[in-house]
């Protein structure tokens, strides 16, 4: 990972980050020649499985950040930026019984029965490109208005009528302890209210026809569900009010009430 930041002005800077995460794993299963032939697919020589997984995530963003005060009453904290998140996963597997003329307990793909062994290659890629921004305006360090917005272009939306989705939020907070002379018991008190709308893309491949490999027939077959053209991202709208308090310096209290409404949820149930 790497991060860079440059101060253009005392109250204005630009920053960028990049990160690459790679995870590789190898799973093996060895059933020795002494195993029950029921689980070795009839082989008295043994059975071998090898699965290799490779996962990669690349993330990068760039942001322009503002932190400025105007006189003694107003403050502004804002940022605007763009990001990209690319996730890939690959899997390669071999499994099968050791051939009758092979060496017992020699666990290698070259010693498997060619007629009964199976190989699979599987993988997927998802990418989300985003533009986002937020603005927080403060007045006399007692009243704050926060507005955010984000637009995502997700690869899962390919083939659907909506190629991207926007989700905003707005929040208002007030600090009575910075406004009035409250009793000494109230060291700090903040009241807050907010609304947010968050979007989530539906699972990949739902709007794009794909094929699945049948190990039994060794043929590519269409998926068992029909692609859905009129499909939209999941949307959750949340309303919240709450308070944060510190009493007698040491006692902290936080309470919230919220209401969430989710629509356009996508399920893939098993059909009997």
UniProtKB/TrEMBL annotation:
Localization annotation: Cell outer membrane
Membrane as UniProt keyword: yes
Keywords: Cell outer membrane, Membrane, Receptor
SUPFAM superfamilies in the record: Porins
Keyword Membrane attributed: yes
Entry GO terms, CC: cell outer membrane
Name of this protein: Protein containing TonB-dependent receptor, beta-barrel domain protein
Species the sequence originates in: human gut metagenome
